[in-house]
Amino acid sequence: MYNSVIQAFGNDFLSAFGFESKRIVEHIPSEIKTIRNEKIMVEDLFRYEDGTLLQIVCHPRAEINERDLWEFVINYMAIYDEYEQNIRAILVLPPTIQDAEIPMDRGSIYYNPEVLWLSRWNADEISGEINDKIQQNGELMNEELSLLTMLPFMNTKGSRLQTAVEAVKIANQVDKGKRNLVIKLMKSMTRKLLSGDDYDQVVQAFERA
User: Which of 11, 34, 38, 104 is the most buried if burial means most Cβ atoms within 10 Å?
Assistant: First the structure.
């Protein structure tokens, strides 16, 4: 049961968005305890072939502030305390965030995750490219399925609703198994990446699917 696009497509998802990566060999969702003695569930945690870890952090709010970054740091430190392995962190930001000061340097604490800026990915262009391939009877590979899944969360000239509806239309053109997987992942990623009106618009699109 996949709860995110990275869980479904792994290295192909990273490649689709331009991240070079060692081979992921294991998905290790973990319940860990933070320095505040709180238990949290880390869903998108993975082990590389060399034993080091990959953490994908999705941020659903329309803006990001220092308090959010501290939460990421606390979770990051808790993962390190649990596994005592180097951790590569990738922060996935929604299309509403155009830019932000992400690195946090507080003396002994330095947090500088890599960032997937969905605001810098053009949903209109990518949907056209994917649709063209389908019309030419081309089979969508995992990298393209990753991009298709993330279309509703990229930058667009139209509304969030229009982009989501277009993504669903494209998904309806692929075989049933892939279509069902992509729609399921879109719904899951909506909860991870959107809030407010954007969330409501995309949920409305899925109700029509």
Answer: 11
CA distances to 5, 106, 143, 162 from 155, rounded to whole Å, are 18, 32, 19, 12
Across 59-148, the runs of DSSP E, i.e. the strands, are 87-93, 104-106, 109-111, 114-117
Domains with residue ranges and CATH for the chain:
5-119 (3.40.1350), 122-207 (no CATH)
Q: Output phi, psi for 96, to 5 deg.
A: -75, -20
- Bridge partners, residue 55, by sequence: 45, 89
Residue closest to 58 by CA, chosen among 105, 21, 5, 101: 5
Q: Tell me the pTM.
A: 0.94
Q: Yes or no: say if 190 and 167 are a contact pair by the CB < 8 Å rule.
A: no
Phi first, then psi, for residue 161 (nearest 5°) are: -60, -45
DSSP codes of every residue in 12-58: HHHHHTT---PPEEEE--EEEE-TTS-EEEE-SEEEETTS-EEEEEE
